[in-house]
Specification:
The complex is a heterodimer of chains A (317) and B (171). With 317 residues, chain A is α+β, with helices and mostly antiparallel strands. Chain A folds into two domains: 49 residues, no CATH class; 247 residues, no CATH class. Chain A is 38% helix and 12% strand. A seven-stranded antiparallel sheet of chain A has the order 1-7-2-6-5-4-3. In chain A, a hairpin with a 5-residue loop joins strand 5 and strand 6. Chain A is elongated and about 85 Å long. The N and C termini of chain A lie far apart (80 Å). Chain B has 171 residues and is mostly helical. Chain B folds into two domains: 85 residues, Rna Polymerase Sigma Factor, Chain: A, CATH 1.10.1740; 85 residues, Arc Repressor Mutant, subunit A (Orthogonal Bundle), CATH 1.10.10.10. Chain B is 84% helix and 0% strand. Chain B contains seven helices and no strands. The longest helix of chain B is centred in the middle third of the chain and has 31 residues. Chain B is globular, with a radius of gyration of 19 Å. The chains are: A alpha+beta (317), B mainly alpha (171). Chains A and B meet through helix 1, helix 3 and helix 4 of A and helix 1, helix 2, helix 4, helix 5 and helix 7 of B.
């Protein structure tokens, strides 16, 4: 048998080899003086390394208990949830900014053109029901970040017109964390439909959802898809789809896509606080929540781009 | 699960602090970051907690290094202010020799490539070869080679430091 390689002797001393390989090495070491001396040299090197690294250690202190760490973690949770609300509010303001920007672009040179992306917001102002979209209006995409992983929105007015959008300004922080970008489009799909979605929803794998829609369902690109739920459209044609994506912060974004009338109806049902299809009370909507409704294509990175845009606009003011 | 986490905390906390200290070179900050790691552990409860802990610790240390770069200008200005040197106590004098030794090892460690450092520190933190491979992105079979090189270079660099110090003392 040839001599044992140096890196294998390191692995042997680090107990990183299989038992059978160790037996082979040990029998070789017993009969090979060269490898045996190599082993001793490496053992010495290993000890020296440990000794040297041992000088690079902070003074030992008594650590706080795990219970104490858990208490601290729970104590700071509400603050994080508030921050998520601020982020969501920022995204709504950003959407408004983008809507204005696109309108002004379309208005240059005379008759305003229909903007390719139209943005409407829903504020906390109380009105009875969302405005029904005009017949033949484009499909609607609604994206919301629910608090505590539950959809909780207050739709007031969903517009698909090109009319000026009422602007609501809230403080926006430059450092607001945008949705983290993770490379995944896979789905680990639970089988139960989200009870906050009324009607006959079924959960489908991502590939199946793509087949049904004839394209990739609307979503925030770069964020892992957690669940796709589908319901046939009442008007026929494209089905309604709800894509749930979880940010690294734990928040869930739900993007709803479908014919505008169906999306509006779904959102109004969510807002009325009545009973769902199973006879359970629908989730109550709380004042102060925000919802963003975008009709048309939702470009990648749009939330961040919109926030930047509005931040810039607010600085000018 | 709670008991497992408690056991993991007891067995890993010191290693995590040490690992972080060797990245940020600040004992208080290393403690803070280690506590942050375990608070996140409690929130996420990952499947492979041990590997997860060191992956998060590495990320936090990386963020800390970036923040340190941003703070550097300010620290330089602070240092340039005269008359704020603390008076040295006898204990501090005794500490000097240990500090010098640590400084030499720190310099020696700094001569290693980033990958060699990472593998060596993870090994010293008690991680297995497969765990080190998972975190460093290396093949398991390459860990022995990397460790062999890292150990040799650390000891050689430290010896060079010693010789250099001896030469300076002689001259």
């Amino acid at each position: 048998m040839s001599h044992i390689l140096e890196d294998e002797l390191h692995a042997y001393l680090d107990q990183a080899l299989s038992r059978s390989r160790c037996v082979v090495i040990e029998s070789h070491l017993a009969s090979c003086a060269f490898c045996s001396s190599q082993r001793d040299a490496i053992a010495s090197l290993r000890d020296q390394t440990t000794l040297l690294l041992g000088t690079l250690a902070p003074a030992r202190r008594i650590p706080v208990s795990l219970e104490e760490l858990d208490r601290r973690r729970l104590a700071r949770e509400p603050r994080r949830q508030r921050n998520r609300r601020v982020l969501w509010a920022a995204s709504v303001v950003g959407a408004l900014g983008l809507g204005y920007g696109l309108r002004s672009v379309g208005a240059v040179g005379g008759t305003p053109e229909v903007a390719p992306v139209r943005v409407a917001t829903v504020t906390t102002e109380v009105q009875p029901a969302p405005a029904a979209p005009a017949p033949g209006s484009p499909s609607a995409v609604a994206s919301s970040i629910p608090g505590a992983q539950r959809l909780s929105v207050r739709p007031v007015a969903v517009t698909t017109t090109n009319a000026p959008i009422q602007e609501e300004l809230v403080p926006v922080h430059d450092g607001s964390t945008p949705p983290s970008v993770e490379s995944s489009t896979s789905s680990a799909l639970p089988t139960d439909a989200d009870p906050s979605l009324q009607g006959f929803w079924r959960t489908v794998p991502w590939d199946k959802a793509q087949d049904m829609a004839g394209k990739a369902p609307a979503r925030v690109e770069g964020v892992p898809v957690e669940e796709v739920q589908v319901q046939p459209s009442r008007q026929g044609g494209s089905p309604m789809m709800v894509v749930a994506q979880r940010l690294s912060s734990g928040e869930v974004i739900q993007t709803i896509e479908g014919p505008a009338a169906d999306v509006s109806q779904l959102l109004s049902r969510r807002g009325d606080g009545g009973l769902d299809s199973a006879g359970r009370p629908a989730e109550a909507l709380t004042r102060g929540d925000r919802m963003l409704v975008v009709t048309g294509e939702l470009p990648p990175d749009s939330l961040r781009a919109m926030v930047r845009r509005v931040n810039a606009a607010m600085r000018v003011r | 699960m709670a008991d497992e986490l408690e056991e993991l905390y007891q067995s890993t906390y010191t290693a995590v602090v040490r690992y972080l200290y060797r990245k940020v070179w600040d004992a208080d900050r290393a403690e803070d970051l280690a506590q942050e790691v375990f608070m996140r552990l409690l929130a996420h409860r990952p499947e492979k907690p041990r590997a997860w802990i060191f992956a998060v610790a590495a990320n936090l240390a990386r963020d800390e290094a970036r923040a340190a770069i941003r703070r550097r200008r300010h620290l330089v200005l602070m240092q340039s202010e005269p008359g704020v040197m603390p008076s040295r106590t006898r204990d501090a004098e005794e500490q000097v020799e240990d500090d010098e030794q640590s400084e030499q090892v720190k310099v020696a460690l700094g001569t290693l490539s980033e990958r060699d450092q990472e593998v060596l520190l993870l090994w010293d933190a008690g991680m297995s070869y497969p765990e080190i491979a998972e975190q460093s992105g290396l093949a398991v079979g390459a860990i022995g080679t990397t460790l062999a090189r890292a150990r040799r270079r650390l000891v050689e660099a430290h010896e060079r430091q010693n010789h250099h110090e001896a030469d300076v003392a002689h001259s």
